[in-house]
User: Fold these one by one.
Assistant:
Number 1:
Amino acid sequence: MIKSFDFYFDFVSPYSFLAHKEIKLIERRKTVKVIYKPILLGGLHNLHGIKAPAFIPAKAKHMIRDCKLIAEKNKIKFKFNSYFPIKSLNLMRGVLVAEEDNIKSYYIDNIFDSIWRDGLNMNDESVIQKILKNLNINPKTFFLRSQSSSIKDLLRKKTNEAYEKGVFGAPSFISNNKVFWGQDRIEFAINEANK
């Protein structure tokens, strides 16, 4: 039986991107299934009453260097996005729409790459529209669906559920009801899943 664990992510997090790239390799070579759980990181931070490292100057400077080191070590094409922070609310709602259309993995791959590999300005709606068109997704209907109350409520619910489970940052993994925080904790989550 293939074991599984949950991956809590937000496109705004460069560490989530790096974890996503590692997960893709891990899933190819190991008998483990990773279940992607979209959350709104800003909302999660608000629930916990914490400030994101990206908004603390000393930590932000370290984060950029750290992400580049991890990317180089793992041979991941990475470019710290000059438009950071990316407003990820609609992009994260888009994950839920893509899930309904059975293109969740395809959508996640392309949005992550657009932000953290290609360095595109994902705060610009026209850039997002172009990407969606390239994915053969109708931007107008996709955006309309992402603004529906059911999608908004679902993302809020998923973020609240993550909070209730003790998730406080992204990426985080839950394996056998244990929380592992940080891109460098993937192996711990795998080991826990395989117990």
Number 2:
Amino acid sequence: MSVTTIDIFDYLFEASFVKMDIEGGEWAILTDPRLKNLRDIVIVMEYHRVNAPYLPAREAATELLTAAGFSTGYGSSNYWGHGTLWAWK
């Protein structure tokens, strides 16, 4: 079975609000250097331990988003180390 992939940044540059819940796939987006080039966008995301560049995953997500120029908040974590987080700029 093959799966077609797309470059999400082709769409993110046009978006103003993004809900991201991709079961560990968020790390490829959060570590992409193009994240810093997004403007006027709100991201509501679920982060996961799977594929996180380091743990705790919430700290990794917050630091990556902050480094890309986002403000973050309104998050919650569960006992598995997954959680939700809002980011905006």
Number 3:
Amino acid sequence: MMKTIQMTIDEPLLAEVDRVIDNQKSTRSAFIRQALRLALRQLQVTELERKHAEGYARYPVEAGEFDVWEAEQAVA
């Protein structure tokens, strides 16, 4: 289900969006939907990275913890 919304955007940004969508043969709505999906995905990735770093800060890697995987590493 789609919902119609109203938003405010500055003219230079809108002009840039219009140039892009003209080249892509798309619409403002489709472009903005894609941009919002990408922004939400980036926020999700940033949050996962923060949690990952927080976990390693609380439980740092111990010496020898991953030695069992050394034989699996590719040699460059």
